[in-house]
Amino acid sequence: MKSLERRFNNITEKKPNQSSYLCFAEAIKRRGFSQQTIHRWFQKLVDKSDYAKGEKKGLLENLGNLSNPVRTTEIEGKTASQTII
């Protein structure tokens, strides 16, 4: 997954004033990464001073949702898990 690291590095170069967490979030947004991949690269790329230790679990969950958003259908914005009658 060097592509994730490369995207992260490109974003940090373009936006040097942003925190590493925000750059990481932008790098994974809508890319469909697994929770395991997100966790592994989060450990390697995000500076520990960008988040509190107790927030890590919630941040990783949020990043998973950011990488894999809920799909919607074109009909009235219904989610794919809802039944259309």
Q: Overview of this structure, please?
A:
It is built from four helices and no strands. The mean pLDDT is 87. Helix content is 53%, strand content 0%. The protein has one domain (2-67). The longest helix has 13 residues, at 2-14. It is mainly alpha-helical and 85 residues long. Helix 1 crosses helix 2.
Layout of secondary structure:
Blueprint: H1 2-14, H2 20-28, H3 35-45, H4 56-67
Content-based structural category: mainly alpha
Largest sheet: none
Instruction: Tell me the radius of gyration.
Output: 15 Å
Number of strands: 0
Beta-strand share of residues: under 5%
Apparent shape: globular
What is the CA-CA span between the terminal residues? 41 Å
Q: Could you give a short description of this structure?
A:
This protein is mostly helical and 85 residues long. The chain has four helices and no strands. It has helices at 2-14, 20-28, 35-45, 56-67.
